[in-house]
Amino acid sequence: MATQTFMAKSSLISLPEKCLLTSSTVLKSYLGHFIKRWHPPISPLLALCCFLICERYRGAASEWSPYINILPKTYTCPVYFSDDIIDLLPLSLQKKAKEQKEGFQELFYSFFTFFHSLQPLFSQPTEELFTKDAFRWAWCSVNTRTVYMEHEQSKYLSMEKDIYALAPYLDLLNHCPNVQVKASFNKQTQCYEVQSLQGCKKFQQALINYGPHDNHRLLLEYGFVAPGNPHSVVYVDPGEMVALPNYTNLTQRRTDHYFTSWKSVLLGAAVSQDGEYWCITLALKLCKTISGANVKALERLSELKESADLFLLEQLGVVESLRKEERSILGHAQVILEKLL
């Protein structure tokens, strides 16, 4: 909450570089010796994840403990979801969620030997510290809370682009798709600065904008959904075209043809009156088909919530929010399409 009024184009927050947790911070720490001698080099992302796990283990002895202590203990990103919950996501998002989980698993197991190389730092076996759950927590902390900040490529890290910076305090500001801000690292002041382009009244919540992301991307990358998001869309998976009445027996070649033609119409291609009617009818059938799947998913979510614990309730809640947002979009689309017939 703002304790004072911020005028348009005024600075909301200015965070000195020394307060940012970056790959440079990690390389200068006790982990630097181990990272510099490891080949092939680890990624900037992995370096930050390892540092968070190590610092959490150190507890009060860590200078970063005030920050680490306020980080969420778990997240509602799909990498935390069970297969049953992923199956309740829209079809196109299901695929991305499964890819996210698979990518995380591959990253964790591919660097298990590096985790073991850190054993001299601990009295406790590294297998007990660098668990899959601990790494998932660190991975989500970095992916959901870092700000974009380009760094010089270090010879001790992989060639993966180094664009991460954990920014204590700044990352407590919530996202709002309707807010306009300018955020970047100011090389003159050596601070990461967030400027409000609209201003903020006293006693109102100071908000920032992560970018023009739809709700699928927000859930996948940040673990939340923005109600009334103007960037939201309902994605149509080609497989959903096959599920339409009278189209179940189409060959894959014809399905691709109809999907391409329908997409061209949406993009403004000229069509005949019959062609326009066909496309509107198809779009309406598609809306109803996706709406039906949406209703079933919401019913299943309601059933699961009755016996869910708090951790599971949070996951079900974010999926339910997404489904409700898409229900609203589909409802409005159906009304418009029906008026066109």
What does this structure look like?
With 341 residues, the protein is mainly alpha-helical. The protein has two domains: 21-166, set domain protein methyltransferase, domain 1 (Alpha-Beta Complex); 238-340, no CATH class. It is built from 14 helices and seven strands. It has helices spanning 23-27, 32-36, 44-58, 65-68, 83-86, 91-110, 112-117, 126-129, 132-145, 215-222, 238-242, 252-266, 273-305, 310-340; strands at 10-16, 146-148, 164-166, 174-175, 181-186, 191-196, 207-208. Strand 5 (181-186) and strand 6 (191-196) form a beta hairpin. The longest helix has 33 residues, at 273-305.
Task: Show the helix and strand layout.
Elements: E1 10-16, H1 23-27, H2 32-36, H3 44-58, H4 65-68, H5 83-86, H6 91-110, H7 112-117, H8 126-129, H9 132-145, E2 146-148, E3 164-166, E4 174-175, E5 181-186, E6 191-196, E7 207-208, H10 215-222, H11 238-242, H12 252-266, H13 273-305, H14 310-340
Helix pairs in contact: 3-9, 13-14
InterPro entries: SET_dom_sf, SETD3_SETD6_MTase, SETD4_SET
GO molecular function: protein-lysine N-methyltransferase activity
CATH superfamily of the largest domain: set domain protein methyltransferase, domain 1
Number of domains: 2
By CATH, the topology of the largest domain is set domain protein methyltransferase, domain 1
Number of helices: 14
CATH class of the largest domain: Alpha Beta
Shape: globular
Structural class: mainly alpha
Sheet having the most strands = 3 strands, antiparallel
Helix content: 40-55%
Q: Which stretches are poorly predicted, pLDDT < 50 over at least 5 residues?
A: 248-253
> Taking strands numbered 1, 2, ... along the chain, how are they ordered across the largest sheet?
1-6-5
User: Whole-number average pLDDT?
Assistant: 90
CATH architecture of the largest domain: Alpha-Beta Complex
What is the N-to-C order of secondary-structure elements (H for helix, E for strand)? EHHHHHHHHHEEEEEEHHHHH
SS strand fraction = 5-15%
The number of E-state strands comes to 7
